[in-house]
Design brief:
mainly alpha; 14 helices
Amino acid sequence: METMFGRRTVRWWLLALPLATSLLLLQIGYGYAEQFEEENSARPEDEQGIGFAELATPSEPEVVEEVVGVAEVAIQPDAEVAVATHYSTPMGALETAQSAPAGDYFDSDPWESFNDKMFWFNREVLDRFLLKPLATAWDFIFPDPVQRGFHNMFDNLAVVRRVVNNSLQAKFAGAATELARFTINSTVGLVGFFDVAKDGFGLEQRDEDAGQTFGVWGMGPGPYLVLPFLPPLTVRDGIGYALDAAMTPYTYFIPWYANIGGTATSTVNERSLNLDRFERVAESTVDLYSAVRNAYLQRRAAAIRQ
């Protein structure tokens, strides 16, 4: 057992560390480039950013909320879909997305040409021909209450990530709340299928991730980044994504194919819960890539300020 645990630990770190290291080097290099540019040139960033914001971000509040939801659905398979964010209620997220100063975000996509191609691939190939058909069949088989229960179970398993990141941000009340929620939902809530902690005790989830922790510590977001098979990220969030994945204890004790099956099940279930939302956003947004990017960057910045 000890040998098996050791092998699985090494396997996960061999996957997580190269990704985290590569993204960290990209972040450092981008920081030097940004510093050099600031020292050698001056740009009217605020006016330019506001212009991009007016063109790329949907004007209707309902559409902004839907776009933010699409950007957040995939960032963590165990995210709280009901509020479309890890960090706040829909109204709070909508307010921060609308009120965030545009100039802070829209120079953060130097890799737009690459990102746009990856976004097209994820949407027009992976989602269109694989994920959406599976999610549609899943939605036909399982009613929404069952899908919500599956979501709650996967969400309950991410307690270590939330406790660790709450603690690293000195949010000890949030860490204690997460421990209490896990205890209640794992017992009374039937292994997390029901969110009894919220519905019965009023304990709201205090979701935090490593990307947000780095932001609270003062690390800049780095460039916006879209990769195949992954949700929208920044370089900072990509490093955090790899570290958060390593903070999922059960993955060290089950076979690799069970890990893949669990991740696939969670991803399909989340897509199924958001079939209508995704369609509304796609139909009502002219430039979906820019809208998702802008909403994602605004939401993440607002989350770090909280």
